[in-house]
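Quick one from the shared queue. A colleague (R.T.) flagged Heparinase II/III family protein as missing a structural entry in our internal table.

Convert sequence to structure tokens.
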Amino acid sequence: MSRNDRWIRGLALLILAAPMLVTGPQAGAKALSDVGFFGRWRDGAWDIGSRLSYSHPGLTDMQNAVKAGDYGLAKQRLLDYFRTRPAISAGSFSHPDWPGAVELTPDHIWTLDGGEVYIRTLTIGTAETTVTTDVTSSVTGGRSGFFLMSRYKDPVVAHVHSRSKGSGKPTLRLTFADGSTKSLHPTDDTHIWAGHPGNVYGDKYLLQVSDQGAGPFTAATRKAYLQFDLDGLPEVKKAELTLTARADASKQVMLFGNGESFDEDTRTWSNTVQYTYSWEGDPGGFDWKKPAGADEEYHVQLPRFFFAGPLATAYQRTGDEKHARALIGLMTDFIEDADTYDSDEGAGSYPNSLSVARRVQNWIPAYEILRKSPSLTAEANAEILKAFNRAGMHLQESVQGAPNWKQTQKVTLLHAAVYFPEFRAATGWRGNAVDFLGSQLDDSTYPDGGYWEATDGYARSYASQYVDIALFMRPHGIEFSDATKAKLRKLGRFLMDQTYPNGYGPGYGDGESRDIRSTLRRLGELLGDQELIYVGTSGASGRKPAHTSSLYPDTRVAVSRSGWSRDDSHLRLNIDRGNHSHTDELAVTAYAYGRALLPDMGTYTYSSDLRAQWLRFSTEAHNTIEIDNQAQDSKAPGAITHLVTNPVFDRIGAHTEASGGARHERSVLALHSGLWLVSDRLKPTDGAAHRYEQNWHFGAEAGPALRSGSKAATTAFDGTGPNISVVPADPGQISASLRDGHHAPYMYRVENATYASYVKTAKGGTTFDTLLLPSRGAADPAAAVERLPVSGTSPYRATALSLDLGARGDAVYYKSWSSQPSRSFGPYTYDGKMFYAENGSTGRTIVMVRGTSVERDGQTLVESPAEVADLAVRIGADGTVRIDGTGLTASTDRARAIAIDASHATEVVLNGTQVPFTRDGALIYAAAVA
């Protein structure tokens, strides 16, 4: 045991006795004065107990000063103690980096994460000046725009040439990997003016930049925006932005990268969601609140001190006291302005419990660095420690919000308990946090292991934080129970099953598609789960999962997966609900050949921006059906009724009552060879006509086109790589169009994106049937769907399609929605629930679900004495017949074996094992229903 460990454990034992050594009630949190924090000694006894434990010898001098009533000296002795205290594990910063934290935040200039990323400050002179700046990191980071804002509060106005100016237009010069170059002018540029919030300035020759006065902005504040079109360009190696400008006096202008598309003809101050505000020169500094017009996250991100990590580590790295002074000043400013004693949630709780936890999470490692700084005064140190104590008391009592809120509160409480054993309450904090975290997985996950909040981003961070805290606990002799680890493993499997084959999450709900592999690997290493390790390392280590597709009936999510390599296919269907969910019941996301071809469109912001509202709250923004132009109710009943899995295909069935006008049923046949068929059935609740809109979203760079006749929508992603064709049945019964939407690949970035919309208005029950055909290269223009009449019934009861798959071949598909009598469609007769047959250059495939017999032109293709649950027969051009299905056994007994039309069969493989077969003319016998 190290000297430090012995010191901590010895101190912890003394603290257990602290309540007996320091008598008297502690002061309430709302009156945490010096007396309330240090205690008060009167007439030889403590009539007000201290928040600190005086049982440790290191605090003896401070205790003597308190007994003497000299609180100034007590504060100095407290600082002396913490300056010399051995280091204790402090945890890690929530954000090791933050836009402009070191350069701008000390001057009270604040920007949200990722919305506008600081590049540098430009100097604009009184003479017309041309300034060229390297903006490579911003462009290669996916930002196609720029934002200009005044660095200092002064009355000077900078005038920057716009794209409308005859000369000196803004120019973005790009150098590509092959050495070639290209120069671009903005597609849109403008400025916005707080004093004229409804005015449009997109046609002006000069963009204006100015800021002055107190507060985040005044009527004089003007900000400028530029946007470039980078679609379809090759890999950029270098990017340089050239601006021409002048000012009435020398002017400092900040340049930021910006990832938001806009229209210069409509952008105004009133309709712009802003991410960056300045209190520079304001004696009061930040007010820690949300400025008018800012994104909703402003008033919570700012008090969470995401900038503490960059500032503290800059001080640690350089020893420059300006960084320490800046961070200490920001901490004490927050305490004075916002960490009040009369909050609705109690002292130290501004603005909510999650923000308290994130703030303390960042303050602890910052304090570990700052405690030895000469810039930390005794008074500031005491106020910071009081704030820590108030926050800890709040976090012990607080169990507010969604699962990620509660988890973060208790994780931070445990960190505080370990880092501050000097607090009398630390032992109680520790027990409270460990007990809560050990049991919380019961409340935050469904019985099947799925996460309660309907977003993979929050599920990912929630699981990752459990790994972090488990690793933090081990050196302190704390372990989660086996039951907790088992639940954590189920959550890890849920994340693993949803992950795209390239290791990224599907980005559903209020989240974004991020690489999840490190989280899966760390979970696997913590739990000894080789399958999690395999997926988390892209197969470099661990063991390949024994399954592919998966159903989470409680979470209401199903995933069809062809395998675990990057080029495999993946389709996710959900009816999930919970915090951060979108109105996307029965939506699918689809991935094939290394690309998300039908992605979720993302979130953008939590603001009132119309694009953000559309992405989060409209059903139209998702790959499902919107009824009567109304968003779904995600709290309505619904279920995924089945997932039939087979090595060759999956079949998913689900329904929802989320739209008041009609019940929506969706069935998906997923061929692992790379093809999906989606059948939708709408059952209205009345006899009125209803409008049904089926939408398919491709992302901002897909370049979709709508083909005449078939009304198929095909993508044309730039460069090489996969594309997709969306081919509807019954093109004559629907109106098809390409519509303007939005895509937010990451938070605070939004791009225009075109999507395919298919609309029909009908009375009574109606259907949509759609072929989704991915391709490794260009989309096949020959893909087409023709409806086949089904004997004795309508498409509402049973659907049959003839499919032209272009170069792949041709196929036929049949699905019965309810009963399964023998029915004829085209040349086929079948008596089961679902059937698919494909003919191509590599052979034939036959798929059956819950059937016994299928014929073509009166000739038997498959006939079984007993109903098969699921059956796939692949007949290769080389004569190999592969049979896969549930509950099958090898048999050549013609009385019980399945007859299969395979006249050229030379070998039969049943569920992966070669078996004998017999022949009777064109029919072979090798397997039977067990």
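Residues 1-29 have pLDDT under 50 and may be disordered.
Residues 378-397 form the longest helix (20 residues).
Added to the table.
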